[in-house]
Amino acid sequence: MIVTKPKPFRKIKQFTDPHENILVVGCNTCTAVCLAGGEKEAEQLAARIRLHRRRQGLGGSVETVTVLRQCEHEFNEEIAEMVEGRDLLLSTACSIGPQALAERYTGVRVAPAMNTNMLGMVKEHHVWSEYCVACGDCGIYKTGGICPIARCAKQLFNGPCGGSQGGRCEISPDVDCVWQQIHDKMVSLGLEDDLKKIMGPKNWSWSNHGGPRTLKKEGFQP
Ligand code: SF4
Ligand code: SF4
Questions:
Q1: What's the pTM value of the predicted model, to 2 decimals?
Q2: Level-2 CATH architecture, domain 2-117
């Protein structure tokens, strides 16, 4: 999922203080699952902003609404009436959400309430770990189903580096060396000899270094 983290409240105040009619827009998919910006968190944030504004004598109104997915205009369309007359939409979605709102509601200022951190997996309750950086050309077949781009500090394709110690990465004893994991997995699959082959250069043409990417699903019949 896309993992997000709320911005510090001092940032939220900077975004919201100059405005009068604020709509906090929650998103009930990734950001709700990672307990950051779903309906409940959007309402909690709106309540905190209201309290802050009351204390500061700022007045105005702060309301909240939540859509299923802010990354689809179809769902953002449903809140058109609530957006009417607002001067700020504060999005608790990942950073795609506020951009989608800015695209749909062109006359209203938009602000992100979240920082978008990574594409991650749940490791334990309230803990996520980065598993993918959306490189556009997934090559994990060769590495035992484990991504060295997202999970190795040096993004090595032919690891491990010389710093791996006792299965831990040299950047921190709290971080697993992913190349140790890849090695162990390949051994368990009886494929350790594959690791002796040098992996060639990766095709980065599908990464975003050439600008924003567009994906069109071929053969899709609406
Ligand atoms: S190889 Fe690329 S697409 Fe596959 S998991 Fe790693 S970053 Fe993601
Ligand atoms: S110790 Fe392992 S995970 Fe860390 S940088 Fe070296 S190869 Fe990558």
A1: 0.88
A2: 3-Layer(aba) Sandwich (3.40)
Which ligand has the minimum distance to the alpha carbon of residue 149? 1
101-127 pLDDT, tens digit per residue, is 999 999 999 999 999 999 999 988 889
C-alpha 148 to ligand 2 mean position (Å): 9
So where are the chain's domains?
Answer: 2-117, 139-198
Closest C-alpha residue for ligand 1 atom 4: 138
What atom of ligand 1 comes closest to residue 133's alpha carbon? 7
Ligand 2: centre distance to CA 170 (Å): 6
Ligand 2 centre and the CA of 143: distance in Å? 14
Is residue 81 within 8 Å of residue 63, measured between CB atoms?
no
**Phi/psi of residue 30, nearest 5 degrees:** -50, -50
Q: Are 97 and 25 in contact (CB under 8 A)?
A: yes
Distances (CA, A) of 206 to 64, 137, 148: 38, 6, 17
Q: What is the pLDDT of residues 148-189, one digit of tens each?
A: 999 999 999 999 999 999 999 999 999 999 999 999 999 999
